[in-house]
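Chain A, query sequence.
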Amino acid sequence: LVTYAPTRDEALDHMEQALDSYVIDGITHNIPLLREILRNKKFREGDFSTKFLDEEYPQGYGGGELTLSERDELVPCLAVLHHKKTHHQSDGSFEYVVSYDSTQLPV
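Chain A, predicted structure.
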């Protein structure tokens, strides 16, 4: 994946958007790791060495965490899918509120 933009930050933002658009089925890939690297402050500032992975992930990469906006988008989607799966139909007449932490999101 190669991206270009007038600034490093813009190019990294384009790269993150491109990674979010990839759909890879059937094989193991490292897109979650790449997305996390792109969000890393040292990496974004260009303050890293060839030992970056060893320094940032001394125990190995164990998976990333969702940003708050990603979680706010994902949780309601999962709630709707769960509702559809458990009720086997949806006529759109239900109201759903998803609660997590101290946040409530209408679906």
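The first strand starts at residue 97 and ends at 100. The mean pLDDT is 83.
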